Structure formats: structure tokens, C-alpha cells
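Troubleshooting entry. The earlier prediction with 6-diazenyl-5-OXO-L-norleucine gave an output that would not parse, so I re-checked the input for stray whitespace and re-submitted. Clean input:
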Amino acid sequence: MNRRHRNMLIGASLVAVLAVTMQTGAQTPAEIQQAVDAAYAKFRTLKEGKNADYIPALAKVDPNLFGIAVVTADGKVYTAGDVKTEVSIQSISKVFTMAQVIEEQGLESVEKQIGVDATGARFNSIIAVEAVRTVVGSGAPEMNPLVNPGAISATSMVRGGTADAVWQKIIGFHNDAAGRPLTVLQDVYKSESDTNQRNQAIGAVMLAYGYIKRNWQQAVDLYTRQCSIGVNARDLATMGATLAAGGRNPVTGKQVLNSSKVPGVLAVMATAGLYDDSGKWLYHTGLPAKSGVGGGIVAVSPGKFGIAVVSPPLDDAGNSVRAQRAIADISNVLGGNPYAARPR
Ligand code: DON
């Protein structure tokens, strides 16, 4: 190899390193993988928390399941642990159904019809609905599409002539964000359908107060189905990376959501993604995120990466213990906190 060729090669490698560096902060692929591996090793034996059991099928999921995935905004995938076994997506689906409504009907539709403010209450609070009772359209209610009442309302807003038409849109949007066809975990769907009287009550109250316009039973059923979609850590990280990359799935290249809609989606995640612990989470990580009682958490570092962890045991607020710890650690190493950005 002559000197010119060698210099060209060195130049090309530098550009490659710089490209990765731009995507994640300051890391080479080996350093990103090392951060993922280190968090996996550190938290693998952590035993805090308990599986959700108010949906009986969730209590039967292996509490030792632990998988971590990072997908960068340029589509590179880093994993550790079990990133193949599926858990039910649960509340993480709320982000993507909200995004779909925003895509279809605009940012204002969700703000006016549901609200984009924290309730300050648990995710399935009925008191929160009573406390914020307003005439819909007369002012933004203290509600959002990431708590059950707002999520069931968002599902009711997805347009379609039949329940199946609405469902095809919901599952289609999730598939596009994950980059593969997802399926419903039937045991979870049945288990939650048999025990979701509280959500049925919420659906009926949301109809009575005008948040839901018609057919609350259909909305609750489709909401229950969307919560039962099976996902692994890699799926969730890809869904997060789609939001990190301006609505374009960086693995498949498909534009799933218009980039102008992404900041609104991330804002609601930052406000309410980890429910009444959202403030604490944001304080420590700065990352818009969403948890599900199936044990998944997905977080987004805008322009840099999506990160997800699956680990079923939850804390008192309903958020996976190991997922919170591992994501915070990895994002710290990768410089993921958008509030820590400095001028270049
Ligand atoms: O409606 C429910 O209660 C569940 N399908 C979803 C709740 C959930 O995931 C809350 N997340 N932390």
C-alpha cells in the first residue's frame, strides 16, 4: 500500500469514527457495546421489585428475564442478555397509538381532546378523571394519552369503519416502528380481558365526560389488545430509535411518523412516561421514556439512540427496577441526556 492509499484509509476510518461519535456523543462501537455489557453485568443479579400481578398472566413471566438493546439513530444495534424473549408491551403501546392519532389528526387533536399534562396520580386512577373533569374542548384538561383514561380515549380516536380496520392501523403502526410483524400474546390478552373491569369503568366514565365519543367497549377491547402485543428488548429499542431518528425507522429506512410530530410525542413521554415518577426519572436522565407493566422500558435520546430494557420486576410506581437502572447507567456513559448538550 502506498502512502497516499494509507492516508486515504486513515482518513476514511476517521470519518467513520466521527460519524458514530456524532450519533451517540463520543463513543466508538466497541465503547457502546462495552457500556451495554457493563450494565448487564452490573444489574444481572439485582433482585429488587416484583412482577405485576393484577393481570394474572404477568405474574407467571420469568422474573429473571433481562435483556438490553441500544439502536442508534443510524441503525446500528447493540445488545446484551435475552433480547429474543417477548413480553407484553403494555403501556408502551400508548406512545405509539398516541403517535398514530397525532400523525393522522395533528398535534392539536390530542392536546384538545385528551390533554398533555401530568395527572399527578397513578396510571389507572379514576379519581384523576374526576379531579380534572372539564368540558372537553373548553381548555386543556390535566390528562394525557399515557395514563389509562387518556390512552383508552386515544385508542377511541383512531379512525376506522370497523374494529378490525382500527386494529390493523394500530398493529401496523407498531410493526413499522419495530421493523417487523408483531403478534398479540393471546394468554395475556385473555387474562387482561377477564380482569379489566377497572379499565371498563374508566372507558364508561370517559364516554360520560365526552373524552370518548362513541363505543367505549370497543376502545377498551382494542386498548387491551394493543397492550398484549409481544415485544422483545430489540423491538422496543428499534421503536425508540424510530423516535430518536425523526420518525424514520433507522433499521428499515421507513418513515413511520412525520418528523414534525416527533417533538410532541417525546414531550408527552417526558411529562408522563414513568407516571408519578416521571419527574425523578427526567431529573436523573433527561430522557423521554415509557414504561410498561410487562417489564419493558424504552427511552429516547433525540438524534442519538433508542434504548430499551426488558426485566419484569417493578417498583411501587409500576416501572421496571433493572430497566431504570441499566438505562440510566448506559445513557450516562453515552452522553444521552439532551439537557446536557453543549455548543460544538
Ligand atoms: O391497562 C393496564 O393496566 C395495562 N394494560 C397497562 C398498564 C401499564 O403498563 C402501566 N405501566 N407502567
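This one parsed fine. Residues 65 and 342 are 37 Å apart (CA to CA).
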